[in-house]
Amino acid sequence: MSRIPTVAIVGRPNVGKSTLFNRLVGKKLALVDDRPGVTRDRREGDAHLIGLDFRVIDTAGYEDHDAQTLPGRMRIQTEAAIGQADVALFLFDARAGIVPLDEEIGRWLRSSTTPVILAANKAEGRAGEQGILESLSLGFGDPVQLSAEHGEGMGDLFEALLPHIEKALAAIPEEDEDDRPDAPLKLAIVGRPNAGKSTLINRMLGEDRMITGPEAGITRDSIAVDWLWHDPKGEPRPVRLIDTAGMRKRAKVQDKLEKMSVADALHAVDFAEVVVLLLDATLGLEAQDLRIADKVLEEGRALVIALNKWDVAENASSLFNGVKRALEDGLSQVKGVTVMTVSAATGKGIDQLIQAAFDTREAWSKRVGTGEMNRWFERAIEANPPPAPGGKRIKMRYVTQVKTRPPSFVVFGTRVDQLPASYERYLVNSMRKELGFGAVPVRMTFRAPKNPFDNKE
Ligand SMILES: Nc1nc2c(ncn2[C@@H]2O[C@H](COP(=O)(O)OP(=O)(O)OP(=O)(O)O)[C@@H](O)[C@H]2O)c(=O)[nH]1
Ligand SMILES: Nc1nc2c(ncn2[C@@H]2O[C@H](COP(=O)(O)OP(=O)(O)OP(=O)(O)O)[C@@H](O)[C@H]2O)c(=O)[nH]1
């Protein structure tokens, strides 16, 4: 399980912690942990804020406690939550102002080593101005002003969290098994029926099969098979093949081939780092293949396309070029995806395909240093300055990588909300080319700092 940066929302009852939690976790609320041992007083979820992903802990639900036991109960919960967190988000109600319980929580937080961000909730309109002034006495500096209910101030919250999350991320890689280059490559092979998936998988596993059979903990329908691939230098490289054979069989039975194939692909994608989309080269690329390719990239996974049955492909080069062209004409994010040729039947090209999958994962996991990134940014902007809608130039200030796997970036600037999509594409493509991301999906979000009324997600 990879560790991700964790933010604990703390504060007295009714300040809006749950409302903020729900806003940050959004649609994924259904996935909120309901683990035994985690009491009702604390819930956790995967938060997403403008390209930042983190875990959020909410210390909610004190309604049941009577006034006398409340502070004690809260203190235990708050300490447990901040003990697990990289940063505490200390929420108060700007409309109600600072009350003794806020001061008490402030004292607990000051005595802990977890960094604290003070946030004034319910700050929409002007009703919170007095409370915000009062909060300076807590000693945590100017609060971030929010309205969890109306989604205001999320940009400022992002900026306040960013340095803490970056710091936590920087500390994590050593511990994060998935991030290590020698971690097994999680590979899924998807494609239309008859493309040759089973043949390819059997050929890959061959003699090198290490562990076979279903592995606990994947899902009922997917199994993982671990094996060792030997790279061209003879080095063993572990691969975990995510197989969704069960789903494929069911698809056949139900005779819903088209529909299930896409569902099948998506299912496997959940567990994979790199997805190989296998095509029958003699049939070429069809709309459904493009749809799968697009979904894989949309899910943020790395994609490699493999043209199978190359042994019987006639007019090989025109076929290859045809597929390349069809990809270019397809959706913009599919452009530049690596295309390999293989024969599952003879084994030709399989080593190159697996090598390409490893290379693609490397690009997908890559973190670019701030210096290198901003040098690229300046060059890209100089070579092709942003437009000036209405005579006012859009100013680009800086860029930061908020995440890897897939690489995700936030670009800060003025009036970036007016950037044409074509310019955004220019930046993404330039970044892919010049910073070595190849065709892995690169996510780029544009932000105008200090604009509290954007990001009404
Ligand atoms: N005006 C305003 N009301 C808000 C805002 N955020 C939350 N509220 C309201 O404040 C009340 C309390 O919100 P909750 O999210 O339940 O507060 P909580 O801190 O989780 O409370 P406990 O679960 O008791 O700890 C609810 O009625 C919300 O609708 C806001 O930004 N503005
Ligand atoms: N000539 C040739 N035939 C192949 C190759 N790979 C697979 N085939 C044949 O293509 C057919 C389909 O292969 P499978 O491996 O069953 O395809 P699949 O994608 O697993 O099919 P489903 O289980 O229906 O999803 C079989 O008859 C294979 O022998 C290849 O590289 N060359």
UniProtKB/TrEMBL annotation:
<dbReference type="InterPro" id="IPR005225">
    <property type="entry name" value="Small_GTP-bd"/>
</dbReference>
<protein>
    <recommendedName>
        <fullName>GTPase Der</fullName>
    </recommendedName>
</protein>
<comment type="function">
    <text>GTPase that plays an essential role in the late steps of ribosome biogenesis.</text>
</comment>
<feature type="binding site">
    <location>
        <begin position="243"/>
        <end position="247"/>
    </location>
    <ligand>
        <name>GTP 2</name>
    </ligand>
</feature>
<feature type="binding site">
    <location>
        <begin position="58"/>
        <end position="62"/>
    </location>
    <ligand>
        <name>GTP 1</name>
    </ligand>
</feature>
<comment type="subunit">
    <text>Associates with the 50S ribosomal subunit.</text>
</comment>
<dbReference type="InterPro" id="IPR032859">
    <property type="entry name" value="KH_dom-like"/>
</dbReference>
<feature type="binding site">
    <location>
        <begin position="121"/>
        <end position="124"/>
    </location>
    <ligand>
        <name>GTP 1</name>
    </ligand>
</feature>
<feature type="domain" description="EngA-type G">
    <location>
        <begin position="185"/>
        <end position="365"/>
    </location>
</feature>
<dbReference type="InterPro" id="IPR015946">
    <property type="entry name" value="KH_dom-like_a/b"/>
</dbReference>
<dbReference type="InterPro" id="IPR016484">
    <property type="entry name" value="GTPase_Der"/>
</dbReference>
<feature type="domain" description="EngA-type G">
    <location>
        <begin position="5"/>
        <end position="169"/>
    </location>
</feature>
<dbReference type="GO" id="GO:0042254">
    <property type="term" value="P:ribosome biogenesis"/>
</dbReference>
<dbReference type="InterPro" id="IPR006073">
    <property type="entry name" value="GTP-bd"/>
</dbReference>
<feature type="binding site">
    <location>
        <begin position="308"/>
        <end position="311"/>
    </location>
    <ligand>
        <name>GTP 2</name>
    </ligand>
</feature>
<feature type="binding site">
    <location>
        <begin position="191"/>
        <end position="198"/>
    </location>
    <ligand>
        <name>GTP 2</name>
    </ligand>
</feature>
<feature type="binding site">
    <location>
        <begin position="11"/>
        <end position="18"/>
    </location>
    <ligand>
        <name>GTP 1</name>
    </ligand>
</feature>
<dbReference type="Pfam" id="PF01926">
    <property type="entry name" value="MMR_HSR1"/>
</dbReference>
<dbReference type="InterPro" id="IPR031166">
    <property type="entry name" value="G_ENGA"/>
</dbReference>
<keyword id="KW-0690">Ribosome biogenesis</keyword>
<comment type="similarity">
    <text>Belongs to the TRAFAC class TrmE-Era-EngA-EngB-Septin-like GTPase superfamily. EngA (Der) GTPase family.</text>
</comment>
<keyword id="KW-0547">Nucleotide-binding</keyword>
<dbReference type="Pfam" id="PF14714">
    <property type="entry name" value="KH_dom-like"/>
</dbReference>
<dbReference type="GO" id="GO:0005525">
    <property type="term" value="F:GTP binding"/>
</dbReference>
<dbReference type="InterPro" id="IPR027417">
    <property type="entry name" value="P-loop_NTPase"/>
</dbReference>
<keyword id="KW-0342">GTP-binding</keyword>
<keyword id="KW-0677">Repeat</keyword>
